[in-house]
Amino acid sequence: MAFCELGIARQYRSSEQDYVKDFLLPVLNETTVYKRAVGFFSTTALIDLSKGLTSMAKRGGSIQIVCSPRLSEEDLEAINAGYRKREEIVTKALENAIEDPVTEFGEERLNLIATLIANGTLEMRLAFLEDDNGIDIYHEKLALFYDAEGNKIGFNGSMNDSENAYKNNFESVFVFKSWNEEQNEYVEELESNFEGLWDDTTSRVKVVPFPKVIIDKLKTFQKSSVDYDLDYKQYGSYKGYMKEDFLKLPEGNLLRDYQLEAIANWKEHKYRGIFDMATGTGKTYTALGSISRLGEEVDGKLAVLIVCPYIHLVGQWEEDVVKWGMYPIIAHSQSTTKNWKQKLINAFKVFRNKGKPFICITTNATYCDEDIQTILGAVTEDMNFLLVVDEAHNFGAERISHLLHEQIRYRLALSATIERYMDEEGTRRIFQYFGERCITYSLETAIANGNLVEYEYHPVYTFLSQSEFQQYRKLTRQIRNCVGMENGKQVINEAGQMLLFKRSRLLAGAGSKIEALRDLLEGYRHEKHILVYCGATNVEIEESPTEDPKIEKQIRYITKMMNQELDITTHQFTSEENLKERNLIKECFADGDYQAITAIRCLDEGVNIPGIRTAFILASSRNPKEFIQRRGRLLRTAPGKDKAVIYDFVTLPRRFDEIVFGDFEEDRSIVLGEMARIHEFGRLAMNRLEADHVLDELQDVYGVTIDIEDYMQMEEDYYE
C-alpha cells in the first residue's frame, strides 16, 4: 500500500489523534527508508525510537538515525576548558546512557534495535555543535519516510520519541506529503536538511559515527529471534495490521496443488482432519496455510497450539511461523522466551476476552504438563481454538491420548506414518479424535511429481562377530521370556523393552561397520554434503594386543576417523549442541565448509537438512515407521540436488559360508527385519534391481521363499 492511500492528516495533536496508532505505526508499516533526527541518546530513547520498526525489521530496508549525547554541565565545562578529550567524555556519557530495560517491552525493543544494527538495517550517527570554544548540544527534531513507490512524508514539530510524549504531554506535529504539490517543497527542504546532517555538511553541526564500543554494547541486547508482533502487543490493532501481519504465505512462495487440496478438504471436514503426507512433502507449510485459511474464516480471532515431539522441531516450526508473519510463544523447558508461562496465560486471557490471536508452539512433554493442561481445560467449545499436532502418531499412546480435550473446536494432525506400529487401538484413538484423512500423499507420488528427489539405494553387507552373535542370541532368548498376551495380541513388558533397546544398540555398533564405512568413504574424500548416521552405541578400539580394548562412542570415533585419517572435514550434529550451534553447523554444511556431518538422531527428530546428497546409514531401525520417515528426510529437494545416494549397512548374524542351508530359524529375527527394510528402500530406488538381487541372494543362502510384499504383516508376526 502506498502512503497516498493511508489518509494521512495534515497535523497530529494530542487532543485529536493517537500519534502512534493513527500515524506512526501505519506509516512505518509501508516504509522502506526511514530517516530521523531526534534529541538525546539513551536506552529509553532507543526503546521509544523502535516503535513501529517491527515491520521494517521483517522487510529489511534502511533506517538512519541522528541523535546527540546527553552531557552534564561538568562534562561541558571539562570539554570547553580542555581538561579532557571530547571523545573520551562523549563515549563515557553514551555508556552511562545505556541501562538494562525495566520492562518486558523494553527488553524486546532493545533486542529489535540490536538486531537491526547487527544486520545493517539501522545506522546511527552522533551530532553536536562545535566551535573553537568547545561543544554544545544539537537538539533538532525531524523525520522522513519513503515508500516503495517513491512517495515521501516529512514532519517536524514538538514530538519527541518518548513514552511521555506519546501518552502524557500535549504535543503536535505537522506532516508534509510529497504527492501534494503545495507541501512537496517542505518535504524537499526537510530532506535537504537531513542529508546535510548525515553527510556532515551542515554549518555549526559536527556529525560523526557512533563509537564502536557503544555499538558493540548495544549488540549485547540481541537475542536469537525478534518479536515481530511487538507493536501490536503493546498498542493493539491499527489500520491494516491484521490484514498484513496475520499468518500470510511468504512472498515468493506458492503452495502446490496437493497442499491446496488438503486445505480445502480440511475446511470441508469442518476444520478437523489428518494430513497423511510423506516426509519432506511440505506438511508444515500445508498446516500453516490451513491455519491462515481458518484465520480468514474467523476474522483473525484464532488461538493456535502447535505440538511437536522434539525441541529442535519446535525451533523449525518457529522459523516458519515467523516467515509467515507472526511471532509465536515458545513453551518448553529450554525456551529462550522469558516467562513463557505467564505470557501464555496472558495471551489466552486476552484471546478469551477480546479475540486477540496468538500462536504457541510446545513439545509433547510440555503439552502433558500442568501449565498447558490448565489452559486447555479452560477452553470452551465456542472458542476459535485450534490444536495442531505434528508427528501425530505419537498421540495414539494411551499416556498422552487421554489429554486430548474434547471441547477443542478445531483439530489438525500431521504425520507421514499415521498408523501406529503394531498398535491398532492407538491408531483408532487418533482417527477418533482428529477425524478423517484430508489427504494421502505418498512418497512414491512425491518422487514422481518432483516434490522429492530420486535416489540410489545400495545395501552394504556387514556381519556380527562371533562374540556379538552369541550376545545377540542370549538377548533374543531373554526377550522371548518377556512376551505375553493381552487382549488377544502379543505384548512385551518393560523389561523386554529394555532388552530390545540393548539388542538394537548391539546391531548398530557391529564392529565390521567401521571398516566397511572407511572403505566406502575413500571414494568420497573430495565430495561434500555427506551424512554418516551413527548409532547411540560404542566401539571397542584395540590399541595393542597386550592391552584391554578402549571403549569410545561410535560417533566420536567415526568423526575423528573422517577428519584425521580420511581428511574429510566433518562435524558432529547431536543433542549436545544447542539450537544456535546446530543452526551454525547446518549453515556450514550447506555452504560446503563442512564436507560431512555425523549424527545420531537427526533423521528421527525431523531436523531439516535438505542439502544431504549422500547418506551412510549405520544405525538402521527395524520399525518400518522410522526407516520410512528417515528416507523421506534424505530426499528433500535442494538447489543443485538431482538425486540422493543411500548406503544402508545391512547387519547379518553370520557370513554366508557359515550358514547351513535351510537353517533360517536361528537367524530369523535379524534377517527378516533387514529384508523388510531392503525391500521398502529398494522398491522405489532408481537401481531397484540391486536391492532385488540382495533379497534373492539372502533367500537362496538360507533356502527359504518369503513373500516380501507382505513384509509389514511379517514384521508384526516375527518382531520380538
Describe this structure in words.
By secondary structure, the chain is of the alpha/beta class. It folds into 3 domains: 3-235, 2-Layer Sandwich (Endonuclease, Chain A); 246-448, 3-Layer(aba) Sandwich (Rossmann fold); 454-718, Rossmann fold, CATH 3.40.50.300. Helices cover 42% and strands 20% of the residues. The protein contains 30 helices and 26 strands. The strands form 5 sheets. Strands 1, 2, 3, 4, 5, 6, 7, 8 and 9 form a 9-stranded mixed β-sheet that branches. Strands 12-13-11-14-15-10-16 form a 7-stranded parallel β-sheet, with helices on both faces. Helix 27 links the parallel strand 25 and strand 26. Helix 2 crosses helix 6 (104-118). It is elongated. Mean pLDDT is 84; it is low at 158-170, 237-244 and 711-720.
How would a crystallographer describe the biggest sheet? 9 strands, mixed
Into which percent range does the helicity of residues fall?
40-55%
**What is the CATH topology classification name of the largest domain?**
Rossmann fold
Secondary structure tally, helices: 30
Query: What is the tally of beta strands?
Result: 26
What is the assigned CATH homologous superfamily of the largest domain?
P-loop containing nucleotide triphosphate hydrolases
Round the mean pLDDT to the nearest integer and report it: 84
Which CATH architecture of the largest domain is right? Answer: 3-Layer(aba) Sandwich
Overall outline: elongated
Uncertain residue segments: 158-170, 237-244, 711-720
* The CATH top-level class label of the largest domain: Alpha Beta
Which structural class best describes the helix and strand composition?
alpha/beta
Alpha-carbon distance between the two ends: 64 Å
Number of domains: 3
Strand content: 15-25%
Radius of gyration: 31 Å
